[in-house]
Amino acid sequence: MMMKNVSIALLGCGTVGKGVIDLLAMNKSLIEEQLDTAISIKKVLVRDLKKYKQMKLPKNIAITTDFEDIINDDEIKIVVEVMGSADFAKNCIESCFLKGKSVVSANKDLIADYGIPLLKLSQKHNVDFQFEASVAGGIPIVRPMYSSLNSNAIEEMTGILNGTTNFILTNMAQQGISYEAALTEAQKLGFAEADPTSDVGGFDAARKIAILATLGFHSELTFKEVSVEGIEKVTQADIQHATEMGYVIKLLAVAKQTNKGISMSVYPAFLQKNHPLASVGGANNAIFVHGNCVGDVMFYGQGAGSLPTASAVVSDVMNVITHFNNQITGKRRYLWREDKKLYSTSRIMSPYYLRMIVDNAPGVLSSISGIFAESNISIRSLIQKDETKEIAEIVILIDSSPNGLVKKALKKVESLDCVRKVASAIRVVEV
Amino acid sequence: MMMKNVSIALLGCGTVGKGVIDLLAMNKSLIEEQLDTAISIKKVLVRDLKKYKQMKLPKNIAITTDFEDIINDDEIKIVVEVMGSADFAKNCIESCFLKGKSVVSANKDLIADYGIPLLKLSQKHNVDFQFEASVAGGIPIVRPMYSSLNSNAIEEMTGILNGTTNFILTNMAQQGISYEAALTEAQKLGFAEADPTSDVGGFDAARKIAILATLGFHSELTFKEVSVEGIEKVTQADIQHATEMGYVIKLLAVAKQTNKGISMSVYPAFLQKNHPLASVGGANNAIFVHGNCVGDVMFYGQGAGSLPTASAVVSDVMNVITHFNNQITGKRRYLWREDKKLYSTSRIMSPYYLRMIVDNAPGVLSSISGIFAESNISIRSLIQKDETKEIAEIVILIDSSPNGLVKKALKKVESLDCVRKVASAIRVVEV
Known about the structure:
Shape of chain A: elongated
Helix content of chain A: 25-40%
Largest sheet of chain A: 10 strands, mixed
Structural class of chain A: alpha/beta
Strand content of chain A: 25-35%
CATH class of the largest domain in chain A: Alpha Beta
Oligomer: homodimer
Number of helices of chain A: 15
């Protein structure tokens, strides 16, 4: 008997698209044996025909620049969207749903902005919409969140979700180089883009934590509700102070749910060296999830890259095909609670590491500590390091205080004549 | 409209059974909202009625000592088996399948011995059989293995899968106490059983790695095919030598698949301190999986305990109910390949740490090193420490050599008159 066959199309043929083509070739028989169904890539949508003719894709794959070629091909049952931009991708995916095609997407920008409306639309049209690769590349986290940790009330998720910034911070620590030098190296090696804002500004991590929080907290959360701070201001001096004090600096994406509400934020943080996330080096990703019954679980692996991301995309495709074969396409239930309550991140407490450049003169410490005392913020330690005759560097650790209060106090500190600048204000995470 | 209701029964009401009862009460509305179905525990099978009457279970739960009460109750659709022993559990589960009841089991002994025959039987009777909690408690690994990492050829799995031994080894390292003292403490705290053989002998970890390898390698593997070594011979001296050399000692469960075949083994090992598994402390579990596309992924969390294990059990129950609601009960496909090829663990190469007690006399080192030279095993380092005038301790690191060859050479070494005993032979894992 001939094996069933499912034809799919790719929208986009960049790093991830190429990975999907490669993976389906590498693991062809293993995948077909599990599904009892063959997968064939029938068409690939690209922007520039010439560029892709050089790639020498397998001959049975047709390359097109016209989305109509794909949407009007009734043989194509699954469309794999691996383009990256949000708006064009959204239009394409909506068209797919209307035509009864299921969609797998690796596009975090899209999912963070339009994930829930698209999921709802897919259910209306009885098709599948899956997006495991949109968070943390190949690490299984999206499906485990809704199909393995679903017996828990999820209370907190803390992740290192951006490989670029983790690569930069790891290199700053290991090689003693500046932020700028580490960024340049990351760009050279292809770990950072020419315009690195989305990564180093924390926006990419913010999109991913919004996706995870949406699933974990059963709430329609969006990227715009994440309080975002990047790593651009982290200096080699901060890294060295962290090392001296037994910490490493990581860009964390944090989502919390308490009875007061949900908060989501992205910020660089001092992590104690024995924290399991502290040893996540290079471009790797990791996510800590705290459920009310399971306790802490962690997922770790490569958060990007061609084949790791393709691993998640193809696993989604296999899932969609299993649903075809069991005739349950579009039947997954998602729970979205109506009463979304947000908790302002400015009210969240944490200790802080502060670094200031001040005049090297008497009375400076007393002025600064006076402001903290007024604000009811208590100082745990204070070290002054003379830089020159005129300038001194002060490093202060303050006890756990509401983030908003700390920011206000720092504005006052910065307005002091004797303070040249507040160079760093980085949260400290204690286990 | 009334919500649907699914009645379930528990076989056993120990730590895990109680956890399931507690979890279903704690997270009742969250679970029901996700499923659009209520779950009610109708009956619980126990051995000793008196004992459980004191537990004050919710009044709507009937307690029985007679399995017939459960098997003949047609209202009960899912049976949760949390007893622990293999043979009685197997009989019960087979009866459930025959009666069209789906089963969720947390019983690693059972799954390791009878997992595949039971899965096949469940499919024959069109019921579900799920067992996420049989490996690593609450950590999602069984379902991710077959539904998220399924796009990969799995090449290796390395896990810390036994909490008891990890607790003992962690305490030996942190408190400088002997194996015996650490075991006694673990028993006092309820982390080890009165007869600890299954844990400290490595058999529990062996059962779990056999289950994971069966799923990951699509091969009908059994516990009996695992080469097993426990931690009973690990001494405080070994721990100290490991620390001095930058290692920690962990009990690893390792399964590998190459084109030469599949090997499975459990053994204590020297792990470099920067290995991600090295920081897994206390009673925690972690599993590293290497897929040919996804690379390394790691799953980490509590491998035992009432609520963490219940988290996995209830997630399985929710899965079964989702299958009921979608009318796909018993339809999950598993791929078992026919051509199981085993690779003898005696042919696997690794460096070794060796510790010997010898006569403090001239010529001893030359006799020992002569035997290694004959066997083509090269010595990386050798340190002699005089214990007394008569006795010396020798610590040797040898380069990567086939395990079988090392064992043979050690037998020869031990037969030397000047060697009092080969106290330790522990594999070294290098990243």
